[in-house]
Automatic annotation (TrEMBL):
Source species: Rhodanobacter aciditrophus
Name this protein carries in UniProt: Replication endonuclease
Molecular function GO terms recorded: endonuclease activity
Family listed: Belongs to the phage GPA family.
Alphabetized Pfam families for the sequence: Phage_GPA (PF05840)
Taxonomy, superkingdom: Bacteria
General function of this protein: Possible endonuclease which induces a single-strand cut and initiates DNA replication.
InterPro entries found in the cross-reference section: Replication_gene_A-like
């Protein structure tokens, strides 16, 4: 009764092989004690009760400390069954295809992606050759499903071919694997790792990955160069620094547009409103005091993107209401996280004075439509401040939010977290990149694409078809530019529109266009005057002065695989 049988020992060894060495050692010690005090049957019963928890924790790898702490908290508050159910869900979410997503990093991720792309190409080719197009499509659909990619254009042979061509590239598998890092971040958020008292806005894990990625991106940009037909060359880093990817340029352009919009609103005698929209309590994991939010919807586990979707849906309803009732508005919205990563919106908008009350009522109505009766909803969920020119400008209201979301310049301390402005901006940028959230978006107004294209011209080459609009853009006068383009409500009737090239086939067999300039009716001003080739810095130059180009090379370059992607033959698609 007391000493375990040989069969019992084998059974125990099999169970303990699925836990860490440390856990196995502790379990064996406890089993020995129970064998002597209560017998091996009672010891086995105890082992069954604790083994699954440790097996699950062993499978979450580097996330164990945070996950184990949260599981213990849930067990204490809601019982062991609830904690185990949550643990099972965490393991399931962190599993990506055939690996734990946290184990796919750096060189390991590259090797994994290479193997996946190679295997996909071989298997897809075999299915097409041996079983036909229908089986090949079915194999593609299964592969897309396990990779978490949605694809619905199965009736379009060109799009199917393009998707297949992408899937035989390791980069495709790497890109989609990295998207799964959002799941890791959301699990850490559920574990209370994202909060003011810990790591505000974004977890330390994601922040570290963001910093490494920034360094990697910079190294890449500095090691490649673009060379044009006149043999002029610039590193990609130099070109990047000249555009709006440069935080300084980005902030300056945003503030120029905001000031110009405000000046135009003043001329039109429109009211200015500063509105904050916040998600319901069930989207917030941690309170500002660091305690867990009991209203957090743990059953559905709303993610950061779920919170953003709620805000987008609410704004869509508001816009539809305003359009139906002839209440046009224009302005900008910025998205930033609460300390626990849940998004909220700050909106600076302008409207006719006669419409102000109706606009505020629309925001109040739709902003409180979901869980509007919960405690504090009417005070916190929709905040409206009328912009009083006597107290400050509209651009002044929004300037700190612009800076806080870009580089933190001119902000000494972030009031929500106590971090410096620079550190807060870095964390917010890491947050937006991790969750794929667009930080700024104008509504109403005119095309910034036209503005940017016109500013590519030098004064000597000012386009004749739109000289006045060009000079407004060139001197940075967004107000004049907007008026000349047709005003804030011009919509599709604006004076100039972006002009695109004729469709050309890309490496995936898709017909794509690229921007070439601006157009006014049938007249076109071409802004893209150079043809660029991207190459490694210092790459070999051929005798005829052509550079050796950098191109994306498709793995499928010959033999049966080449036939597979021949759209004229329709091998896979018909």
């Amino acid at each position: 009764m007391f000493n375990p049988t040989l069969h019992c020992i084998e059974w125990r060894n099999e169970l303990l092989s699925d836990v860490s060495r440390e856990d196995a050692a502790e379990l064996r010690q406890r089993l020995d004690e129970l064998d002597q005090s209560e017998g091996y049957v009672a010891a086995n019963t105890w082992l069954r009760s604790v083994i699954e928890r440790l097996q699950l924790l062993n499978r979450v790898s580097i996330m164990r400390p945070a996950v184990e702490k949260e599981a213990d908290r849930l067990a204490e508050q809601m019982g062991q069954n609830a904690a185990l159910e949550w643990l099972r869900g965490v393991v399931q979410r962190l599993r990506y295809i055939d690996r734990l997503i946290t184990d796919l990093n750096g060189e390991e991720l590259a090797k994994w992606a290479e193997e996946k792309s190679r295997r996909f190409e071989v298997d897809l080719t075999r299915e097409a050759m041996e079983s036909g197009a229908a089986y090949a499509r079915r194999y593609m659909a299964e592969s897309l499903l396990v990779a978490g990619v949605t694809f619905t254009d199965w009736e379009d042979g060109d799009k199917v071919a393009a998707m297949a061509a992408r899937m035989i590239l390791p980069e495709w598998w790497i890109r989609n694997a990295k998207k799964q890092f959002r799941i890791v971040e959301n699990v850490l958020r559920e574990c209370g790792q994202v909060c003011k008292q810990g790591s505000p806005y974004v977890s330390s894990w994601s922040l570290n990955k963001f910093r490494k990625q920034q360094q990697s991106n910079r190294s890449f940009l500095e090691s490649w160069e673009a060379v044009n037909q006149y043999n002029q060359s610039f590193t990609l880093a130099e070109l990047s620094d000249r555009g709006v990817s440069n935080p300084v340029n980005r902030r300056n352009e945003l503030m120029t547009r905001i000031r110009g919009t405000e000046e135009l609103a003043t001329e039109l005698n429109h009211d200015g409103l500063f509105i904050t929209l916040t998600c319901p309590s069930k989207y917030h994991a941690v309170k500002i005091n660091g305690k867990r939010n009991k209203k957090f919807d743990r059953a559905n586990r709303p993610t950061v993107r779920d919170g953003q979707k709620y805000l987008c849906d609410t704004w869509a309803r508001i816009r539809a209401f305003l359009k139906r009732n002839g209440l046009p508005v224009y302005g900008i919205r910025t998205v930033e996280p609460n300390h626990d990563g849940c998004p909220h919106w700050h909106m600076m908008l302008f409207c006719d004075k006669q419409h102000t009350k109706a606009v505020i009522d629309a925001f109040t109505l739709y902003g409180l439509m979901e869980d509007g009766n919960e405690l504090g909803a009417k005070k916190q969920r929709v905040k409206v401040v009328r912009i009083d020119p006597a107290k400050g400008t509209a651009s002044g209201y929004v300037a700190k939010y612009i800076s806080k979301n870009i580089d933190g310049k001119h902000i000494d301390t972030d009031l929500e977290t106590g971090k410096s402005g620079t550190e807060a901006a870095e964390r917010i940028t890491a947050w937006s990149r991790r969750h794929g959230i667009r930080q700024f978006q104008f509504f109403g107004g005119v095309s910034v694409t036209v503005w940017r294209e016109l500013r590519r011209f030098s004064v000597e080459n000012a386009p004749a078809l739109c000289t006045d609009i060009y000079h407004a853009a060139n001197r940075g006068d967004w107000m004049a530019f907007t008026k000349l383009m047709g005003g804030v409500f011009a919509g599709r009737n604006q004076t100039l529109k972006p002009h695109y090239s004729e469709p050309e086939e890309n490496q995936f067999g898709e017909m794509v266009t690229s921007i070439m300039g601006v157009a006014r009716g049938l007249e076109v001003a071409v802004t893209r005057l150079y043809e660029w080739t991207v190459q490694k810095v210092g790459a070999q130059v051929l005798e005829d002065d052509e550079v050796v180009p950098w191109t994306r090379v498709n793995n499928c370059t010959g033999g049966e695989a080449a036939q597979l992607f021949d759209r004229r033959e329709g091998y896979l698609w018909q």
